[in-house]
Design goal:
Helix content: 25-40%
Largest sheet: 6 strands, antiparallel, barrel
Radius of gyration: 44 Å
Strand content: 25-35%
Structural class: alpha+beta
Order of helices and strands: HEEEEEHHEEEEEEEEE
Mean pLDDT: 84
Number of helices: 3
Distance between the termini: 65 Å
Strand order of the largest sheet: 1-10-13-12-11-14
Low-confidence stretches: 1-26
Length: 302
């Protein structure tokens, strides 16, 4: 019986002892049974025997973009367009003061009329001298002189007519018209500003087809071919990938160890605007021995 009591006392006192130890100095160590989940980034290693895709930063620009300028200089008296305006072929973009060119045209027309009168007089004189020569009443030298005079005035009359034509064209050049349907991207001049011939007044774009201009390093430029397929994405248009095609491969270094390559975006999307920064991806076939490429962050020391 004593032995049985001792065996019963031990288990009965266990909860009391455990409670006392919990109220006392050090706390018991409790095992943590929760499973710790650590995030892992997975990267699929591509097949080294297939093509390797390289990405290049680029900027979007219209496929057709033209800087518009006057062929003659003068003061702008009309400038009805502004940046963002759509324009049609032949629509007036700007006008110069035509006063000086109208005066030049009138002067050229007066010189032409005078040349015509002198030529008519010289031809009449040549006809009279020729009649006298045929009747043997004048010399051959006088006939030659009269003929040369008539031909000289004829040449002067033709030159005067060309001057009239040029003056008329210069007067027409005082009106700047849109060469194609498009949109005004930028306006570089203002009304009452005096501009020189060839000075840019506005920049037009067709707005239909867009391109991306990227820089390809010299180690890869010889592997880029015209007509090669590519894909283009823009940060400002998330979730959208555009098919593109290589339409121009530069032959001159841009000074940054890259060569310019132009990609034409096959799809038309009004959300793509000039100056948007994006990324173009081009696939290059592997050369030589196959090499497995993995991100640098995945390589650690032993």
């Amino acid at each position: 019986m004593r032995r049985i009591n001792r065996m019963l006392v031990g288990p009965a006192l266990a909860p009391v002892l455990l409670l006392w130890s919990g109220c006392g100095g050090s706390s018991p160590v409790v095992a943590d049974t929760e499973e710790v989940v650590r995030p892992v980034q997975v990267y699929v290693v591509p097949d080294p025997a297939q093509e390797r895709v390289r990405a290049f930063a680029g900027t979007a620009k219209p496929a057709l973009e033209t800087e518009i300028s006057f062929r003659v200089g003068g003061e702008i008296v009309e400038l009805p367009v502004k940046a963002g305006d759509p324009v049609k072929t032949g629509e007036v973009l700007a006008k110069l003061d035509p006063s000086d060119y109208e005066l030049q045209l009138r002067q050229a027309e007066a010189q032409r009329d005078q040349s015509e009168a002198l030529e008519k007089q010289a031809r009449a004189q040549y006809a009279r001298v020729r009649e006298l020569y045929e009747s043997q009443n004048t010399s051959k030298s006088e006939l030659d002189q009269a003929r040369a005079s008539a031909e000289s005035y004829e040449a002067q009359r033709k030159a005067a007519e060309k001057a009239v034509e040029l003056s008329r064209l210069q007067l027409e050049y005082c009106t700047l018209r849109a060469p194609f349907d498009g949109q005004v991207v930028a306006k570089m001049a203002e009304k009452r500003q005096t501009v020189a011939a060839g000075q840019t007044v506005a920049t037009l774009t067709s707005g239909a087809t867009m391109e991306m201009l990227v820089g390809i390093p010299e180690t890869l430029i010889n592997r880029v071919q015209l007509g090669e397929a590519a894909t283009v994405v823009f940060d400002s248009i998330p979730g959208q990938t555009y098919a593109a095609e290589v339409t121009e491969v530069g032959v001159e270094n841009t000074g940054k160890s890259t060569y310019p390559v132009r990609l034409t975006i096959q799809e038309q999307d009004g959300r793509i605007r000039a100056g948007m920064v994006g990324e173009a991806s081009i696939a290059f076939a592997t050369e030589g021995e196959a090499v497995v490429v993995v991100p640098a962050e995945s390589v650690v020391s032993e």
